Write the structure tokens for this entry.
Amino acid sequence: MMRVTLVSMVVGAGLLLAGCGSGGGSESASGGASKSSGFAALKMGNKVEVSSFQGGYGLDMFEEFGKEFAAAKKVEVKVGGDPRIWLQLQPRFVGGNPPDLTWPGWGMDYWKLVKENQLMQLDEALDSMAADGKTKWRETFEPGLLALGQEDGKTWMLPYHFNINGWWANKTVFDKNGLKVPTTYEELLTVGEQLKAKGIAPITFQGQYPYYSIFGFVLPWAISAGGMQQLDDMQNLVPGAWGSAAVVKAAEMMTELRTKGFFQSGATGMSHTESQSEFLLGKAAMIPCGTWLHSEMKDVWPKGAEAVFMLPPALASGKDATNICVGIEPWVIPAKGKNPLGGIELYKYMTTQENAVRFVEAKGTLMGIKGANEKAKLPEHLKEPARLFGQSQAVWSPMFSIWYPKFKKALEGATAQLMNGEITPKQFAEACEAAAEETRNDAKVMKHKYSRG
Amino acid sequence: MKRGGGWFRFAFLAPAMGLYGLLFLYPVAQAFFMSLFNWSGLSDNREYVGLKNFQDLAKDKIFVGAIQHNLIIFVGCGIAVLLIAIVVAHLLQGNGRLTKALRASYLLPHMVSMVIVAVMWRFIFNPTLGPVTIIAKALGVKDPPAWLGDTKTALLCVMVAFIWYGFCFYSMLFAAGIKGIPEEIYEAADLDGVRPWQRFRQITWPLLWSIKRMTLTHVAIATMNMFALVQLMTAGGPNRSSEVMLTYLYETGFSNSDFGYATALATVNLVVVLAVAGVINFIYRRNPSGGRDS
């Protein structure tokens, strides 16, 4: 599930969701593919093949939906999956025999598939009726999440469940020591000293996977120091954005926490599960992680441990303290599948509100289907993220990390160095800016333009 | 054998040569061919770019760093494995209880899957629970490094894991090599009053010439093609401090969807492996004992 984490963050972009104050979409500088999906001309075949990423949510619900759809439509549905499904899909895309419906997983380069004309444009399908026959299918999805799979106004990827990224606080630790979960950076500094005095590390993190620190420390605090436009500029690789004062400030905050001894000793060498175990065992009080924490750690969750979701404590004088990071894990219809209409119809069935509610309750995740989260009995641990999400004025996701994987890797390297105390905040910002410049100047890298409404 | 049996001999060699061509030469040629294209690996759209991928590789600092790490691993692990293997091979020569116990167990690390090796060593280097950290703290190190998360120690940790995994196999080679040295030579040396160190330096070491050559060649191939251990222990990090050629190849092909560049990298990797193996065989071209090359 660690990689589910990644996808949850990489596929999203900072966008408007119902009730939130910002919106947006993604525009490609290099253009998309066909003008029409040819949806009207499609005929439904009698076999539907589904290939799904097999992560923490398993395959059982998809198999169940497949069986129900098969019985209702008198077709044969085959559902397959693998934790590395993208490796199996790549040769199938090259060979022109992909499945009819797929969730290709965190390792798939989704936007390269778009560039290579391997995905079906879904706008005509979205304008057809949903499975309930009452509204257009497009109306099924949260518009902000739907926009995450769009480029140049064309839709290529569809949301299903989504994650909210932030921090978690070990409630047991805070309650036992009579401490209050910090809401600002200044409070964090105070609480951190109190935790340290009790022999508890205030924060741990997934040091072997530095993108957790990028999404949990660097970006939220760069927004806090520079506002949402700062993040947009960083996503768009605007010259100077990654070397800006806001990024330096974020790095200074991280350095301050490190030099004050707030980070758990050895955290830079910990994997996601190791650090999350340390957190759940109460050896550290807080950790940056998304709403997948419970499903990822359910098998090793210590008895009595309780974790509450919190936003990264922003500067009290910050420019935007009410933003939240989300991401989707999209499903796609391959353009060269044998039965794309079958794939579309099955996905319509999977995304009815009723079935979305079933998925929420079975798997304990938030869904990108309108009304499902409100109607479902949300697990206790998702209530707070859902509440914070509803209150947020801006919703964002680090889209650059999937657009530019090599750039992301360079940022990870600089972040690891910063967390190890090998470079100064200024050097960190310079390294980030240098990596951004290299990406900007690399003609081989397809450029994207992100815009928020 | 009669002269003029060329076709006869060719007929016997043809199946093996055919398989070699099909399973080795053809994929290598195909990889080289693919390296001449800009290709995402996600469709059959390819753009011919000639040798541009190779030109870019020559300027790629990450790749150059990865080759350096491969070479450091080869030299470090090669020396360590050679020394440990010779010691263990000598310990395997006796007939005592300890020797028998060692003989029964010394190959165990090599029987473990590389994935298990990586997972095990990840635990050993765990910054809170790992034995290395615990021992370091017991020895008075106040704040031990995060081992796999520290740019100064990550590569070393990978090397230690490889040495642990590899030494036993090479010990077996050296043990067999020592067994192959005629006992009469040692007996004659004993009659001449040769001391143990001289006995090793003047007899054993030179007569293990072909084993040393084979070991170093094998270590070179194993370390220059190292992938699973690095990928699972550090994924090349932190900040590419343990990046090796094949982890970078994997990233380039499967994360960056740049298969043309990745196949160019694979081609260069093959050339580097051949070059290193060639240098080793050049250094060991003459048998100092004057014996037959084996």
